[in-house]
Amino acid sequence: MRLDRFGETIAHVDLAARTWKMKPAPEEWVRKYVGARGLGVRYVLENGAGVDPLSPENVLCFLNGPLSGSEANMSGRWACVTKSPLTGTVTDSHQGGWTAARLRWAGFDGLIFEGAAQTPTYVLVQDGQLSFHDASDVWGLGIHETVRILKERHGGKDVSVNAIGPAGEKLSRFAAWVNEDDRAFGRGGTGAVGGVKKLKAIVIVAGHRKSEVSDPEAWKQVRRETLDMIRDEANITSPKKGGLSVYGTNVITNITNRIGALGTRNSQSTSFGERAEAISGETVVETILTGNPTCHACPVACKKEVEVKDGPWKGLKMESVEYEPAWSLGSNCENDDLGSIAKLIDQCNDLGLDPIELGNVLSAYMEATERGWVKGEGLAWGDAEGMVRMTDALALREGDGDLLAEGAARAAAGLGHPEIAMAVKGQAVPAYDPRGMKGMGLGYATSNRGACHLRGYVAAAELGVVPIEADPLEWKGKGALLKTFQDLHAFGDSMDLCKFSAFAEGADEYAKQYAVALGRAVSADEVMLAGERVYNLERYYNNLAGFGSGSDTLPDRFLEEPSDAGGSKGHVCELGPMLDEYYAERGWEEGVVPEAKLAQLQIP
Prior knowledge:
The chain is α+β, with helices and mostly antiparallel strands. It is 38% helix and 12% strand. It has three domains: 3-205, Aldehyde ferredoxin oxidoreductase, N-terminal domain (Aldehyde Ferredoxin Oxidoreductase,  A, domain 1), CATH 3.60.9; 247-428, Aldehyde Ferredoxin Oxidoreductase Protein, subunit A, domain 2; 438-553 and 574-600, Aldehyde Ferredoxin Oxidoreductase Protein, subunit A, domain 3 (Orthogonal Bundle).
């Protein structure tokens, strides 16, 4: 398949009628919104901002980027875009692994699901065709067993199964899609949208339609240039050199703990003290690491296969204990039992749950228990076995798990204490405390999909991962810095390249790859303009959905309760002045995109 013809093979699937047709994306949409994240948001906007996210009318988009399935470095990703049941915003989430490449090789740039099936259904994608199959025998099963059965049924080798688990079937608002057992569309509740549609799985059998470019020599040259940057031994911040290959994403646990940005006990504290070492990437490598698999076209290999060596879950094999879930299910719940964290992450992979939201839900429940706000036994801090039991109950909506399945914000409100939910726009925060990393606090507040570290990874600058000086405790200048990161990442997610590529590459390198793929000149300024357009398109959708002045905020805990430990001790997050600076940079009016900005960016 030609990279410069991206968007021509998008299947529109009517689950109710069990029919599908190939309908190319409008050329103008691809030109303006690139693919994956950006193109998906445009489809979701076309469907209407007033749709109920937990209704058959909500559209569910699975989209590649222009480089998916090619040999472009770190291009093994695709996006799921929909209206979020958790937040009510537009949301996109991205998976690694091999599924994006196999979808492209099977003859498709994307799959857009409309309506709902009458009975449990899975879809088979193979050789440019799509077929509908009864999923009754796998409905109710965990994802691991579903993947095993469907892979065996359809050939095993070169087959990807993207599935929901019991949590999605039961419409947990933070249910996830998971492919190949452990790569997730984690955030935003996309799995619940699959549950509403009774869509259990998408099975993709890789074909032989490998990607082609009009100028192979230019393509080879730009691939070599970017690979050299990723592998640059002289650059300590490169993805290959800077620790990701050795320790995975969990390499930063000890760093954030030291500077006072590792939330503990539902962010009541900003450090886990000496106990942080027990859940760090270094400890994972030293004690339970068994392998270093990687995604399609990725030289970094940040995934870490592990095997629990002792305790109740001895013998459990899974991947991988990454930074965000190690924090959310670790220090955030005052749990330093590495084996239990691996078990809980594996439960998320099998039940189909977002581990970031899960850890926040459990920690809020623990705080409510401690304060006497829970009827019955509740859940104590650090009770690893209790966390495992409650996760099963949550996925099946049993007992208090029924309330917790609604996510941290709704669960805390249901307990009568919304203030203990560390959430923005209904989505729980990731693993960087805004009192210790203030740019990340602004990023959480202004993220279009609810609290998120990946919309604008200012942490790369605040932790010194990229050669940009940014004091994590200084609020001035963070508005402009965040906008730059958000726009660059919006373009990267639309390509769809791994976020970690931005540790080595910038707009110039993205422009070179995109230019060769398209067969025409593309500048770095065009890259940043496209990213800005995508970010503003998302904000426009959210404005239409009812988000406006006052929606960009943070929990009071971060704004009013000073940090108690680490390098950030005594600090709060000065969100107000950062927001003023940010809105000025964006040209927004109190979080709303004005008509003049929409016209300038040619939105929609």
